[in-house]
Write a structure and sequence with these properties.
Strand content: under 5%
Radius of gyration: 25 Å
Oligomer: single chain
Order of helices and strands: HHHHHHHHHHHHHHHHHHHHHHHHH
Helix content: over 70%
Number of helices: 25
Mean pLDDT: 84
Distance between the termini: 33 Å
Number of strands: 0
Length: 528
């Protein structure tokens, strides 16, 4: 498994080294400075906005008891259902200068024409930062809220008795204790930002990811795209190193005694409704507004022309590819996690860690590496078949969709292996020993004990992998076979052409599928 994950990255390095020195010089002078600048600005802006929104919202629903608080606890997860490229796709039409929103604002202010008054263009760096921040803040909200909930109420009450205000309680005690969770959440949000290609391209931001796609697809320059991918991979490694460095000396523990749970403060009714409005605003921007827009446009499209046959073909392609990749990814993750449990040691530990590297790499980087590696295999097989058997095999991997499934496996193996490993970790080793004493082999113990007891972890991991495969855009764009469309690629094509209403049904279907893990996470949160 580790070698299969390393293969695309190795192929990427080999292909990048084949580029001429003049190509490196051209990229360094004309492409990388702009792309790197835009990428760094975007990462800083999204990181700050996601950290502020996620942390403040987590503290809001933890420290205050107001009307609607229970609903906000799970509703704040809803923006996770909206991929970044769909939020950009929706708001490009919602905030269009001649659209209904800006028209209503002009009517209220007494203007009659976009020439007299119009909002700042959403196609900008600021617009991209705001939209991505309001979609990706749940990555910070989830771990930070969990950290707030596990903090000892006795500790916070002791701080209150020492005269610390509720605001000081947050800044001097709760937030410092939650810094590891905030750092992890921000890192995940930044990884998703680096993986994005659709939103950045739609909004006119030339990131490294967009440059990889345009260099390969538009200019047909594979070595140049590989070299930009290496630069993007270096940014990812830098982010991970900074996150580890920031937490290098931080150690946190809780007392062995059962601690008292932190009791939220109940504000006055007026303040309570104001807090609810503040908590509902990110949901409105990140989920409700785009969902209503997509529902409206989809209904108009269905009324006008009904559901096209292309929609059902795209649904079939999307579901089949995602299901096949999910089954393979679960099998690979199960093998990794169980090998790590059955034979713990340096080899299994490092193999497990290497196998999860694909999730840190953006989808465009993984896809480019898979393309280079499997295209080479396709050519070698075709030459051998032509020479020895007298017929050509063509593109066995690239032309059948297997390359795309392979990219999905490399990209999301960390989700599968991590979820299954956490489920297996809850099974005590004494059950393994009891099973072996009763005559079961390692395989029998796995089937009769581990597989049944880790069913919930398997289901959760499978659900997350399936939804991520459905939403994945960069890898699907680069590796899909000719004339094969999925919901994500159809949406990208229509948005690039400016025909928003044509792709509204596909976008709504992706959002509906994306709600599934949100429902699961909300149920887990209420159970916890």
């Amino acid at each position: 498994m580790a070698l299969l994950v390393l293969l695309p990255i190795t192929a990427l390095f080999v292909q990048a080294m084949q580029g001429s020195a003049g190509l490196w010089l051209h990229l360094l002078e004309n492409v990388l400075p702009i792309a790197l600048r835009d990428t760094v600005i975007l990462l800083i802006g999204v990181g700050i906005l996601a950290a502020v929104l996620g942390t403040s919202l987590a503290w809001l629903v933890t420290a205050y008891d107001f009307p609607g608080r229970g609903m906000l606890e799970w509703a704040l997860l809803l923006p996770l259902a909206v991929p970044t490229y769909i939020i950009a796709y929706a708001y490009l039409d919602i905030l269009h200068p001649i659209g209904s929103v800006q028209g209503a604002i002009r009517w209220i202010l007494g203007y009659t024409s976009p020439r007299e008054f119009r909002l700042p263009d959403i196609r900008s760096m600021a617009g991209c930062i705001i939209l991505l921040g309001f979609v990706l803040y749940p990555y910070v909200y989830i771990p930070t809220r969990a950290m707030f909930l596990t903090q000892s109420g006795n500790l916070l009450d002791a701080a209150r008795t020492l005269g610390i205000s509720r605001r000081g309680l947050f800044w001097h005690l709760a937030l410092p204790l939650a810094r590891p969770a905030v750092a992890v959440g921000v890192s995940l949000a930044l990884m998703e930002t680096l993986n994005d290609v659709g939103a950045a391209e739609f909004l006119g931001v030339r990131t490294l990811t967009v440059s990889i796609y345009t260099t390969w697809i538009t200019r047909n320059d594979l070595p140049g795209a590989a070299q930009i991918a290496l630069a993007l991979l270096l940014v990812v490694v830098t982010l991970v190193a900074l996150e580890r460095w920031a937490r290098r000396r931080q150690r946190y523990s809780t007392g062995a005694q059962r601690h008292q749970r932190f009791e939220p403060h109940r504000p006055s009714p007026i303040k309570g409704w104001l807090l609810f409005a503040a908590g509902a605003l990110p949901i409105l921007i990140g989920f409700i507004a785009p969902a209503l827009y997509l529902s409206s446009e989809a209904w108009k499209r269905v009324q006008f022309a009904g559901l096209s046959e292309r929609f059902f073909a795209e649904a079939f392609n999307t579901i089949v590819l995602a299901l096949l990749a999910t089954i393979c990814t679960l099998a690979a993750g199960l093998a990794l996690a169980y090998a790590n449990r059955l034979r713990p040691g340096p080899i299994s530990t490092w193999s497990y860690r290497v196998s999860t590297l694909g999730y840190a790499a953006p989808g465009s980087v993984v896809a480019l590496g898979v393309l280079i590696a499997l295209a080479t295999f396709d050519q070698a097989i075709d030459r051998a078949a032509t020479t020895w058997l007298g017929f050509a095999t063509g593109l066995l991997f690239m032309g059948s969709g297997l390359a795309l499934v392979y990219a999905y496996i490399v990209r999301f193996l960390a989700i599968s292996a991590g979820g299954i490993d956490s489920g297996l970790a809850r099974i005590p080793a004494s059950l393994d020993q009891a099973s072996r004493l009763l005559g079961q082999t390692a395989t029998g113990t796995f089937v009769r004990v581990h597989l049944s007891l880790s069913r919930a972890a398997l289901t959760a991991a499978g659900l997350l992998v399936f939804v991520d495969c459905v939403k994945e855009l960069p890898a699907t764009l680069l590796l899909r076979p000719l004339n094969l469309e999925t919901f994500a690629t159809h949406l990208y094509g229509e948005a690039a052409r400016g025909t928003y209403e044509e792709a509204s049904i596909a976008a709504l279907a992706i959002v509906a599928i994306g709600i599934l893990p949100v429902i699961f996470l909300s149920r887990v949160g209420r159970t916890g």
